[in-house]
Structure formats: structure tokens, C-alpha cells
Amino acid sequence: MKLDLDQVQGNIFGGFNKDFQDFLFLKVTSPANARAWIRASADGIISSSTDVLKYNNTFKRLTREGVARPELLIPARWANIGFSFKGLKALGLTETDFGRLPDAFTQGMAHRKHTIGDEGASDPAHWQAPFQPAQATDIHAILLVAADNEAELNTHVTFIEASAGFGTAFTVLGTVNGRTRMEQASTIGHEHFGFKDGVSQPALRGINAPDDPLANPDQGHPGQDLLWPGEFVLGYPTQIPSQKPGHTSGPNPDPGPMSTAGNHAWTHDGSFLVFRRLAQDVPAFEHQLHTLATSQGLSMDLVGAKLVGRYKSGCPLEVLSGLPFSTSAPSTDPGMANPTLANSDALNNSFEFEDDARGSRCPMSAHIRKAYPRDEDSGHGEDSESETQTHRLLRRGIPYGASFDANIAGSAAVARGLCFLAYQADIASHFEFVQKTWVNDPTFPPENNTSAQASGQDPIIAQSVDGPFEIKPGTLPITVKHFVTTTGGEYFFAPSLQTLAHL
Question: Residue 332 half-sphere exposure, CB side, CA atoms within 13 Å?
């Protein structure tokens, strides 16, 4: 199978992986000028997956060779673009052009609030600029710009805004600034609650080679199943949601049907992008960890790991494959004491949940277990692991806002959180399914519902005020407050470079 990486936008397959990213939300002011600028930008401004993958591979090679800061040797600046359904119409596309696109995309994120749980404080009525109700209908496009440092990013944004035709084509409604936390080495790659982010990502057939092609030909790194790219980009094979006959472990490895969106050729090599700005109340979260640690007789390290499923270093609570199973977890973060456990791609995902069916080590509703149940029985019996892989996401998130510092007056009031970005071939069966069926459903996973009370919602990203959490099997759930609030977002489509050039 050949992937047309020259046509897929760069942040989809490759991932920008830049510490400085700006997300510009655009309104089309002149359809003709916007189409002209988009056509021109497809050659020179918008990056491809070929560009980004080659760069990332070179960056990794230089790192292995001991180069401390490869970005100084090979600087790069990236840009990608996506359009809301309102944006496609604003560009002048008609029903004849886009026909029947998926309902989730055409309706938009705010309209889908009941499906994904954006209620209460997260209701779109409370969203902040540029996503507030009076302005949200004007969000036609998202322009993603990434660079190695603040100066380079500002220079590239200025260059794009000053490019021929941009100013007469678009109005910038607002910008969200994504910035990696870099106060010290231990915060790099960690979100504002302090946990390493983006540890578990799908591996893609045609891009990621298996570490052990003889013993594990269907896994990239250990514990990382190789998936068909059609789950994320249109026009390629997808996963089969049922177990292959005679194949007793792992998801079905055979290719499924090609992914499509209304059978339109212009959508091939494109992907649907979910953008969400998620505010995090860090001091309240840390206070809760302290309170729970005292009441449960556990360390704060272990309480946090129970809520997330990983320690702050990224080290998983579950025992790594091949090691003796134990229901007890260390009280302090083993990844901090032994960074290999957290930083090695060969170790940080090498685990499953089936051997911990009651949540003795990793609670049933821990964040990573709710958001990706791996080989958990999800209610589909022997097909569960194969079915689960039809709902995966390529996540490309980055924090926003300054880190919380208790020693700085007013730090608690600073806006901070996570820019959540995820690519998929279908929003309803991927992002929305994960939110509704896994994250927000207190009865998932179903195998735990024989206990006194369902284990609860995801304690990190559920949008409700609080909920039950079974921190220890066989005991009554405790009440855990939730400190993540949606303050804006939208659904976009990131077309191929060929489509941009012929728009």
C-alpha cells in the first residue's frame, strides 16, 4: 500500500512536534481572493507529510547521535490549514461540490454539545473569544503555524499574513497560542496538571515499521498496534471491527473498506480535525490530590497516577509486558527514579488491561483506560480489541498559558490549559464516540458494573462537575471533582494539497 504523503498535510501523519504553535481562526471576507490565496499557499506555505516526516526522522537521528539541540542545525517552520463546513460554504462551494458530508462536521461542535458532553460550565453559551456564540458562526478556517522558537514563529505568522492576497481574503478573528511548558526539563512535554502528554499514539501501516517484525509484525513499538491509515485519512483501508478467524491476539490485521466522506474524490488524502480549547484549574486539581492522598492513605504521586493511569513522568501504572504481575503499585513515580520506564518507546506502552480486569492496579475509570481501553472487554466480546481500534485518534495537542506558580501572585487566575487537536476520518465514530461512549459514560467499561456502583466517568476530561471514582476494587467509589472546562472549539476538514491547489 502506497501513501501519497506529498498530498497529506504535514501535521496529520508527521506531527509538527514544535514547542511554539499559533492557531489563527479566520473569516473569509472575499471568496475569490480566499480561493486564490489558498491555491497559491498549496505550493510553498502549506507543508506536506513528506516534509514533516523527513524532518522528524532527521531530528531523531541527530538526537541519537548526541546533538543536544537539533533544531539549531535544521530549523523548520510549518503551516497547515483546515476549513469548517461554514468555511467551505463561505468559499463558494455548493451542495453540488460537497454533496452529503458527515452530519457531525456539517452541524459543528457547538451543535453537538449534548453528544460530547459540553454542558454546564462547558456549554457553548459560555465559550470565550473567538468561539463565543456571537462570533463562532464566522469561524471559517483554522491556520496552524509552528516553529522552533517565539521569534521564528512570529516571523512566519507575519510572513503569512503579509503574503499576497491574504489581507483581502481573510480577517483574523482571534489567535490561540500553543506553547510547550519549558520552565525546567521535567515540564517539557507535560500538560498543566503535570502529566506527560501524547505518550500513546497509534502506529500507522505504511509509515511506522515494527520494532520486531518477526515476533510482533502487527505492532510498531511494543504495545502499539499498527493501524490502517484510512482510520485517519480518507481514501485508504480502514480497520475491521471484528476478530480475524483463528487470530487469537491483537486487533484484526487485515485491511477493511476504504474510508470516504460522501464518496467525493476531492476529500481523498484529507482528514477531519477536532480543535478544542480546554481550560485547566491547576491549583484546584493539586488541592484535590492532597486531600485524596490524606483520606486514602496514599501518596500524591500514586493518587494522581490512579486518576490518570500513568505517573506524571508517563510511566504506566500497569505492569509492563513480560514482568511479574503485582496488584500493588509503588507509592512514588518509578519513571522519575528510572526515566527509561517513561521515556522508552519500547516500554511506555508495553502493557494491556485484560490481566487487570478489576482495576486492582489501574482503576477502571482512569483517564488512559477510559480514553483507550486497549484489549478491555468493551461489550463486544472477542471482537472488543478489534472494535476499539476503529475509534482511535491522531492527537496533536499542546498546552497554552503560563504554568501555575504558587509563589507568583495572581498565577491561579491566569488562563491555561490544553489545545486539544485530533485528526480522524470520521468525527462521529472517532472523537465523538470516545467522548460519549467511553469518557462520559459511567457504566463503561461494562465488565465493572457488577460492583456496588459503576466506576464512573473519566476523572480528567469529563465535563461534569464531579462524579464517582472507584479507586480501590471492592470499596465504595469516592467522589472526584473534575477541573477541565471547554472554552471553545470547532470541527474542521484539512484537505489534500492537491485539493487546495484546485480549489
Answer: 4
Secondary structure class of 119 (helix, strand, coil):
coil
CA distance 198 to 318: 17
Q: What is the pLDDT of residues 347-399, one digit of tens each?
A: 999 999 988 988 999 999 999 999 999 999 999 999 999 999 999 999 999 99
Q: Hey, what amino acid is at 466?
A: D
271-280 and 417-424 as β-strands: parallel, antiparallel, unpaired?
A: antiparallel
Say yes or no to pLDDT of 327 above 80.
Answer: no
110-132 tens-digit pLDDT: 999 999 999 999 999 999 999 99
Give mean pLDDT, residues 32-54: 96
Q: Is 390 helix (H, G, I), strand (E, B) or coil?
A: helix
Exposure string over 171-203, b if 16+ CB within 10 A, otherwise e: eebbebebbbbeeeeebebbbbbbbbbebbbbb
Whole-number Å distance between alpha carbons of 58 and 42: 24
Tell me the H-state helices in 372-450: 384-388, 433
How many angstroms separate the CA atoms of 222 and 224, rounded? 5
Q: Which of 190, 183, 182, 179 is nearest to 335 (CA)?
A: 190
- What CA–CA distance (Å, rounded) separates 265 from 230? 14
Instruction: Name the residue type at position 47.
Output: S
**Got the DSSP string for 322-353?**
TSPP-S---SS-HHHH-THHHH-TTTTT---S
CB atoms under 10 Å from CB of 314, counted, come to 24
Strands 417-424 and 484-494: unpaired
